[in-house]
Specification:
The protein is α/β, with parallel strands linked by helices. The protein has eight helices and twelve strands. The protein has one domain: Spore Coat Polysaccharide Biosynthesis Protein SpsA, Chain A (Alpha-Beta Complex). The strands form two sheets. Strands 1, 2, 3, 4, 5, 6, 7, 8, 9 and 10 form a ten-stranded mixed sheet that branches. Helix 2 links the parallel strand 2 and strand 3. The longest helix is centred in the first third of the chain and has 13 residues. The mean pLDDT is 92.
Length: 290
């Protein structure tokens, strides 16, 4: 594989977004290989606009056995958790030690450097994040921060340790966890890893332009937020982790707040076999668009 592409597989989980497919378009523009996982009834629709070899049908048994963390079962949408567990097992079956799993509404990736957010035109950003994580023996999950959460005119650390990783997740396959929960599955997985002593890494040097969930049709928009608001989502988070979570009212609606301060004690442990060899830009070069 080319040095400016990731060495581990990338998966997109998608539902009802064959028309928009923002993440797929972004990866294709960057010439990054990927698979997209959709429910069987949507395979044909997605295969009309994406190379059929990239389209993977979800094994629906993952929905049936998924822990939604409530008693409603399949009476309402499970969210993306089952598909995320499916790709986890799929990557392991292919012999991989890590995998990437992404939401389907990411409209590009950026490098933040010297107060500039520059669009990334190759997979070098993923390769760089992979390389960093592999330097340590106790990173369980990592990923890029949201573009909007890293203001370019504010001093940003290149990465932040031990917080929630969302929407674009680089996951170590041998950790003893799986996705669960109808809502907030990303926060829950991050917290279970952190409570077990693992580290998570959120990169500011690499960013994702995540489109607001309720703006793009499909996904969880109609099935969750449009009809029921944010209370069930926030309430489930508090039920999952009542020791560090609480409900709050912000921006005119109910949210949840999680206290991550106790995880400052989780320290990175360097891989003794890692031997730095100098600067590596992973094929990324800065140039002006014509």
């Amino acid at each position: 594989m080319k040095p400016n592409n990731p060495q581990f597989p990338l998966y997109i989980v998608s539902k009802g977004r064959a028309d928009s497919r923002l993440t797929a378009k972004s990866l294709e523009a960057m010439n990054v290989p990927y698979h997209i996982v959709v429910e069987p009834q949507e395979v044909e629709e997605y295969s009309k606009v994406i190379d059929p070899e990239k389209v993977l049908p979800l094994d629906m048994s993952y929905k049936e056995k998924y822990d939604c963390f409530d008693k409603l079962g399949l009476s309402k949408s499970t969210g993306p958790g089952p598909a995320r567990n499916f790709v986890w097992e799929h990557s392991m079956a292919q012999g991989h030690k890590w995998h990437w799993v992404m939401d389907d509404n990411i409209n590009g990736f950026y490098r933040l450097n010297h107060n500039l957010k520059v669009p990334v035109g190759s997979g070098g950003c993923f390769a760089a994040m992979e390389d960093f994580c592999l330097r340590y023996v106790n990173v369980a999950m990592a990923g890029p921060n949201y573009h909007m959460f890293a203001p370019r005119k504010t001093i940003q650390k290149p990465f932040v340790l031990n917080t929630r990783i969302y929407s674009c997740n680089f996951i170590r396959n041998d950790v003893p966890f799986r996705w669960r929960g109808r809502y907030n599955e990303d926060t829950d997985l991050s917290l279970r890893m952190l409570k077990s002593g693992w580290c998570t890494v959120q990169f500011n040097a690499c960013l994702q332009y995540k489109v607001t969930t309720q703006v793009v049709k499909g996904g969880n928009t109609g099935e969750f937020y449009t009809s029921e608001g944010t209370y069930p989502k926030s309430k489930m988070q508090v039920d999952m982790h009542p020791d560090i979570s609480k409900l709050s009212w912000r921006f005119g609606r109910i949210h949840h707040h999680v206290d991550y301060t106790q995880f400052k004690k989780n320290k990175l442990i360097r891989n003794s076999e890692d031997k730095p060899t100098g600067v590596n830009n992973f094929g990324m070069e800065l140039y002006k668009r014509k």
